[in-house]
Specification:
This protein has 14 helices and 18 strands. With about 425 residues, the protein is an alpha/beta fold. Strand 17 (about 395-400) and strand 18 (about 400-405) form a beta hairpin. About 50% of the residues are buried.
């Protein structure tokens, strides 16, 4: 159910504001699509809707930094290229809604299976025609001849001039960023994660042309050399980075003020342990190197985290064994495999999400003036990060100050706190006001 009231008072919620502060009990006031007051609300505007939080967690909506709306939950990767565009568009719009249903209000496109699908989805969402997260659109990934992971969903370019030409073509259709497919992927059986297919000259030409036209560049870069190539030539977003070596770690640390890494950990975990039902048993995954890659990735990502490199969750959801709707598994992997605290994982998925979406002062935090993209969770993700994977616990999802999702039994329930609850609530608000 969707409502259009322009004022909402969230009362007595446990606020995770994504500034790094510890959570605190208080109120949040939303008017005209933005957060106006946090912690203590001076006065509820006339006609405002009041939500009695009863201590539930209120936090920013989440970000997936490596999104594929057009991946259709199939094990047939080649089928992405042959699926008729009409059916493909419908599936992509359904994927967008699934992200929003799951509490994801920000998504950065990592590749589209067809030229304009991402762009059309972005524009339809922005126009309010279909529900979905805020979206930055991509086009098909670019590969050199002989370097495609899936030929039917790839654009080909060779040499610096070829790269410039294809970048211009993608800019012309309206993409927000460009994707380079620089290395192999073990599941192909012939193109390996440690293979690097691009030359320095090709990467430099693609990045220079994209940046000149105001677009960022992201890259499928698993090999050690590809990561270093990305950093030498200012690729903005590095996907995977599994085999980063000591030199690459030093370069990442030196450039941590502008580069983002989105490893897509769940792809590695699920491909290794959960793809048997789809024809890729664990023995086969281990034989081609996925266990080795996962171990290398965990080691490298832990070191990146220690050095302050911004690592964001999300990636490669939409395959049969990484289906849409399971996006928050990455946050669990960050905590269990990379030694992030739950708070660090949430900040990576919220505040850093605002940064990668190029709106760091408007998205990803619960702060006055920020856009009201909020979720209310029935439980505490700092105690159990897996709660963000449970749709039944995602009580409210708000984007632009409008509810996309809310419990039917609370849709129009008037507030009815007891006097005792009011006293507790007011004391909590006073505590908030005294926070340093």
């Amino acid at each position: 159910m969707s409502t259009t009231s322009n004022a909402v008072h969230f009362r007595d919620v446990n606020i995770i504001d994504s500034t790094g502060a510890q959570p605190y009990r208080g109120d949040v006031l939303v008017t005209d699509g933005r957060i106006r007051q946090v912690g203590h609300v001076d006065a509820t505007p006339e006609g405002a809707r009041t939500i009695n939080g009863r201590g539930r967690t209120l936090m920013s909506g989440l970000c997936d930094a490596h999104t594929h709306f057009t991946w259709n939950n199939s094990a047939d990767l080649d089928g992405l290229g042959t699926l008729p565009v009409e059916e493909h568009l419908l599936f992509a719009l359904e994927s967008a809604r699934t992200y929003l249903d799951s509490g994801y209000t920000m998504c950065l496109g990592a590749a589209s299976a067809k030229d304009r699908l991402d762009v059309v989805c972005r524009d339809a969402i922005a126009a309010g025609r279909f529900p979905g997260p805020r979206y930055l659109a991509n086009g098909p990934e670019i590969a050199v001849t002989g370097g495609a992971l899936v030929k039917g969903i790839t654009k080909f370019a060779d040499g610096p001039e070829g790269m410039r030409r294809v970048v211009r073509e993608l800019v012309d259709i309206g993409v927000d960023q460009i994707k380079l497919s620089m290395t192999g992927e073990e599941i192909t059986g012939s193109k390996h994660a440690e293979d690097t297919y691009f030359s320095d000259e090709e990467v430099a030409a693609a990045v220079t042309e994209a940046h000149r036209r105001g677009r960022r560049v992201c890259a499928h870069a698993r090999s050690a050399e590809s990561v270093k190539m990305c950093l030498r030539h200012k690729v903005d977003i590095i996907y995977h980075a599994s085999y980063t070596d000591a030199e690459g770690l030093d370069l990442l640390e030196a450039n941590r003020d502008w580069v983002f890494v989105a490893p897509g950990l769940n792809w590695l975990v699920a491909t290794l342990y959960e793809a048997e039902a789809f024809g890729f048993p664990q023995e086969a995954a281990e034989a081609v190197g996925y266990r080795r890659e996962l171990d290398a990735a965990i080691s490298g990502l832990k070191e990146m985290h220690r050095r302050g490199v911004k690592i964001l969750p999300g990636g490669d959801y939409g395959f049969a064994w990484t289906p849409h709707g399971t996006y928050a598994r990455d946050l669990q992997h960050f905590v269990e495999l990379l030694d992030f605290t739950p708070m660090e994982a949430i900040i990576a998925a919220t505040a850093w999400g605002g940064e990668i979406m190029l709106q760091p002062d408007e998205l990803g935090k619960v702060q006055p003036g920020y856009l009201a993209d909020l979720i209310v969770v029935d439980g505490d993700p700092l105690e159990d990060i897996t709660i963000l994977q449970d749709p039944s616990k995602m009580d409210f999802v708000m984007k632009d100050g409008r509810f996309h999702k809310e419990p039917e039994d609370e849709a129009f329930r008037p507030p009815a706190p007891s006097d005792a609850a009011d006293i507790i609530h007011d004391a909590a608000a006073e505590t908030v006001l005294q926070r340093p």
